[in-house]
């Protein structure tokens, strides 16, 4: 057994690594494809043949075989297990209701800490698209080496444009860490900037996009969580104490609903950076958070013969003098005539028609539908 | 009984009048709403609460109570009777397959002639929109008076723009007919013109649109049909001879498939005009043949609060910064964001997305689908 071997000799740093995949987030701007019952991570948005969560799991697999934990809503249990049939029960953490990323990642850290306080966790969202995989894995290996030196390590994405949709990471001096030649200190995390500010970030060469990837010793994660969010830390500790006992469900059911909702960035990453405990490995891979339908157009370019990118096996699309994206979750015939850069998302109970330019505004429709009580399609 | 009273005194010219409604034509440019199984005339395209065929029947009703004949495809029997439950069996003529307007109208004429050779028929397509009804009826009354003098009378529509989508009628001198002060001779029917030619027609004030409305003694219709299309005339005579006998089905089944396909304009109206037998009553009503979805936008303007015109009871439409027409035959939620003058037609098995400007090109989609074998949605 791997653990027996590890115990018999100085523990290999990679053997301490456990993956954590928080699988939450409906992906409102991908409505009506992505919705409460079938969120973004359960879709194959790239045409690879894998859902985003399956691809995320496979990307981590070689780094932590059998040691990847998924944190998701209890309503997604069946769908997640259908995607990851090999996932062991001990690696599936179910939330009775969404409590934001600090609770999800913090609970994973607290459970893992009780199983082995030396664990280094790596948290990667279930709904991002990353290529090539080997470049990603090399960055994670550097992050693991860096984390072993006592850092919370984020993998920063080199910005390709002055995005106002992401937070940024401001890097400091290089760190001299064996096995992690590209590790840098992190001075601070900054919120989504205005466009002029984002331009400045891009020109300085000092800023990366914050993709929410964190590799860290669970003990260090919990230390910062305790310092910054003592109430959340106390609740998570109570749940984690009983997690691997027959009291798991009872305790979680009692404590979880009372936990504060806060993002991991505020609860851990930002204060840890201020304390000098955060490092960054530059991610030199292609990364996309598939934030809207325009992203799907980028990830799945139209074929040579057509200006229409079609996603969906059953769709029969006829396009005449038209361009754009068709996402079909039905077997209907779809005819497009004389319309450019259109985005059409066709599902059994809801239809979206917009343009690539307005793809970000889809959440307005979702907000309206929620306000008007049409929640059956959300 | 009306007929006994009529027989007892000189027959009132209006008592000779019988309506005929040819209900054919799929309305290809209204796909996927209008299709083989549910053609244009079976839809309420105006939002009046009546299908087009019901409105057509009601418009004729006061002119020929109980004396309106419908000629339609055998596949539409049930749908037509659902719309016109009062239609007597003797007034329903079923075609086993479409044979164009000369066969449909000619068969009605031949059947009516055998019932009473003095009948004046008035043929009005099932899928036109006309308001106000009393102005239409006044025009038909003038047409009946004119027909009684031995004319095939068409009702010409005063052109509102130089349309290239309609044929035109060139009027001649006024005719002095009692009860028909606006009757004119017709010099000729002309085919759909080019735009410069259409402009000339409009400026001359001598041309009307040909809406395919014909009021004529059945004997005169048949005389011209016999002269111009003897083969068609012979076939129709054979069917009509047996129509009101037990041999109806057998004879029709044998003869109908062999009949030539030709429009009534070529078979009767144009040669009759050349012979000086055609007159015209100007129709001073508003007329629309609902040729495409842009027409639906005209006929059903958007409400004050919205730039989106919605047709369909079940639709839940959310529009943000969008304008155009939504025709819904489902109960799906439809969200439109950042798109102008769009035309969306949402049916259970087919979806059309186009613009008002391109509404005429919908038939290209239908042609493509037919060619590619996707006939299940046509």
UniProtKB/TrEMBL annotation, chains A, B:
Q: Which residues form the signal peptide?
A: none
| CDD domains on file | GDP-M1P_Guanylyltransferase (cd02509)
Q: Does the keyword Zinc-finger apply?
A: no
Going by the UniProt record, its keywords in alphabetical order are:
Nucleotidyltransferase, Transferase
The entry lists its GO molecular-function terms as:
mannose-1-phosphate guanylyltransferase (GTP) activity
Which stretches make up the Nucleotidyl transferase domain? 19-299
User: Boundaries of each MannoseP isomerase/GMP-like beta-helix domain copy?
Assistant: 322-369
Lineage, top-rank taxon, reads Bacteria
A Gene Ontology biological process noted in the UniProt record is: GDP-mannose biosynthetic process
Q: Which Pfam families match?
A: ManC_GMP_beta-helix, NTP_transferase
Q: Per its record, how is this protein called by name?
A: Mannose-1-phosphate guanylyltransferase
Origin species, per record, is Arthrobacter crusticola
